[in-house]
Amino acid sequence: MPFRLRRRSVWRRGPAGLLSVAVLLTGTVSCGSATTSTGDPGCVVLRDLEERAVGEVTTSLAGAPPLDRSPKLGDGSAYVRHLYGSGAEPTATVYGTSHVRRRMPNGHLLGYVDERIEFPDGTVTAQGFYDLTAAMAGTSQYVPTIGLTGSFRDKMGRRTFHTVARDGEFSADIEMCPAGMLK
Q1: For 18, phi and psi rounded to 5 degrees?
Q2: Mean pLDDT, 10 residues at a time, the chain of 183 residues
Q3: Of the candidates 58, 180, 41, 37, which has an alpha carbon nearest to the alpha carbon of residue 117?
């Protein structure tokens, strides 16, 4: 006997289906403007962080690239950067790798970043693709984040960044909320 798939609407499944839909709809609220990283059940929002390079090693498929040339397909780098808040001391340390993965149909380069961001009160991982050409022109880009430890644990969100100086200085924001809350 052939297998038959029966169509059933969530509305016909009874109270359990309606409850599931209600929980999903109420879980999509805005993070608000919290600026704390104290481990509260709410969101962690860090704005206007200054990001400066501490050290970087750049590689290319053709060997070591000249320092003054733009990134090309196949280039990559490993780096350490510090994030600074309003004080003179670093707020966090970023350990990361970045690779130029492909050229998009519009001619822009697609980069991939994999970072571990260590704050005194917790650790975040950020991974994802971004438009490298637009980022180098100063357009804000973002990659998804997942909280691993401390006040960031079990939170998800985004790390937004944009270039403010050609020498590798960036402005960054990190927004993280309990799963399902960040818009």
Answers
A1: -65, -40
A2: 42 34 28 39 88 80 62 87 88 94 93 96 96 90 96 93 77 90 63
A3: 37
